[in-house]
Amino acid sequence: MPKASTKLQGFLREYCISLHLSCHPCIVGLFGIAFQSKEHYCFAQELVGIPESSVKRCVLQISSALEFIHSHGLVHRDVKPENILLLDSQCCQVKLADFGLAQKRGTLIRFITGTLPYMAPELCNVALLDNQKEVTMPPLSVEPSLDTWAFAVVIFCILTGYFPWEHCMDSDSFYQEFADWCMIKKKPFIEEEIPPLWRRFTPEAMEMFSKLLAPDASQRIAVGEVRVFVEKDWLKKDHGNK
């Protein structure tokens, strides 16, 4: 757990509760090991999660689905893990669901709904939203770049297990750190300049994220361009790359 966003008391509380409950066969197992590094509090649990190879299979299929949607002049507008269905444990067949918020590209909207961490800056910069709350705003054109942003946040989430930020506004320090890095990033990337939550990723993955999560919507790449990065490593070897 990053020290930047976690208090020691909160870490110890979660560790103790998790250890106490981990004896149940349907609760993730925990080992009696807790330690800290310079930037993280850590405890050890059984290996549970989606390996990078499976994440990439998922990414390729969802990007294909979104390309198809966009080619028909539509925008999904609600890309998130809850709407991605895995038909097998290896992510060999993945399907995108829930078109309740889908709209025609170019539609002007005055009300925005959705899940905050996946909302692009152009949606969040009007006001601080409560989840599932509608807020009146000036008309905004629905564009595929909204799906591109949410798609990239999903990639981050399934690789890490947590959100990169709560909302894309100046008041969110985690978002602001990333946005500032996007503005000043240089090649080759200097690890000390990369925001702490992103340092588990390789330079190639950071290049991908910087293009998918460009704060300026006009600078975001199309979802299909993620294929260029799939053959490259996304997680550093010391962060459990598989």
From TrEMBL:
<feature type="domain" description="Protein kinase">
    <location>
        <begin position="1"/>
        <end position="235"/>
    </location>
</feature>
<protein>
    <recommendedName>
        <fullName>Protein kinase domain-containing protein</fullName>
    </recommendedName>
</protein>
<dbReference type="InterPro" id="IPR011009">
    <property type="entry name" value="Kinase-like_dom_sf"/>
</dbReference>
<dbReference type="InterPro" id="IPR000719">
    <property type="entry name" value="Prot_kinase_dom"/>
</dbReference>
<dbReference type="Pfam" id="PF00069">
    <property type="entry name" value="Pkinase"/>
</dbReference>
<dbReference type="InterPro" id="IPR008271">
    <property type="entry name" value="Ser/Thr_kinase_AS"/>
</dbReference>
